[in-house]
Structures are given as structure tokens and as C-alpha cells.
Amino acid sequence: MEEIGRMIFAKVELKINTQKGNEIFLLKREPKETDYDKTVLVIGVFHGDEPDGEYLINRYLSEKNETKNRLLFIPCLNPDGLANGTRTNANGVDLNRNFPAQNWELGEKNEYFGGDSPASEQETKFLVYVIDKYKPDLIITLHEPYQVVNYDGPAKDIAQKISEITGYKTEESIGYPTPGSFGTYCGIEKKIPTITLELPEKSDKEILYNTVKGVFTYIQESF
Asked: Full-prediction pTM beyond 0.85?
């Protein structure tokens, strides 16, 4: 497959179509001749108005790199929102408030609307399935625009390492309530180390990639 004008060196492991007919891909890269040590899942574009994660993942996968770990990537979880330039998906749901965490709640229908019920959206169902099937040892989601390393669950040491790589400060709390959030569902309740890497707003893509590439190198070589 080809994205952003580059060939992608990864296997298409799974794909589904969204309500609007756009595709969501799960891509895999793993060691060629040895068993992998750990599984890491990296996710871009939870919110359609935060597009840089897709660019960064696809650019990394356009380079041939050896890895000791099994690396899974969802470059764009919300292609309908990306096409519309909206935070929410085609149903007006904020995917990062739609997970079946204990603190999910039915809220107002605004840009933070968590859906009519937990995991009501097919994008959410797909991601829940991926997590249950592949059991990642670490999850990283790429967001914008706060330029911090937020973490949930047993991820403090990993967050500190990523902070050292990027120069972004660590934050255990993003500073406002997030009922039904992915971090609560995976990090706090499932005990999977979960990093929300908040990228800076409107960054030069070359500078941004050179920063985030260090994180990708860490998960392929050192984690």
C-alpha cells in the first residue's frame, strides 16, 4: 500500500470500512527471523482535527527498520473525522470518550459527546478487538496540541523515557475530566501502560518527525 507518496514497509494485518466507506488499517512490523519480545500498538488520528499522527506513522513505515518487538500501527483511527476536519467521527462521537470504562457517561451532544452507549462506534469496537486479540505490552496514541507526555496505568517510567527523547514534560493528568477515555479503559482498568503523546500544534513536519522518530526507535530497539 502507498500513503503520502511513500511505500509502506509493513503488513496489512486487518482492515475495516467505516460508516462512510473509508478504511481503517492495522499494520504490522515484526522481526523477520526471531520471535518478538513485546508488542507495541501505536495509534494516530483519534480526532479528525489532529492529523499529524497519520503522517508520522506512515513516514516511519516508509523506512526499512529492523525491530526486536512486534509493532502494530493504526495510522488513522478516525478517517471520517479526518475527511471532515472534525474532532468527532461521522456520527458526531468523540472516540476518546466512547470506551467501555467504568466512568463512561452519557453527556451532551457536543464535540466531546461519548456516544449513546459505551463502545457504540465501529471504530471503538475495532480497537477493543485489536487490544483483546493482540494484547499489547505498551500503547502509544498520538494527539495534539499540548506538547506533553500524558500517561495512564503503569507507564510512569516509560513516560519519563519518552519525555527524555522528545523534550516534552510528563503529565499524569491532562487537566480535565475524560469519562470513557481510552487511557482510563486501557491504562487504569486493563493495566496496560498507555501513553498519550500530545504533539505541539502546527509544527514543522520535518522537525516533528525528527523528534518522534526517536520514540519509534525506542519501541523497536529498547523497550
From this structure: yes
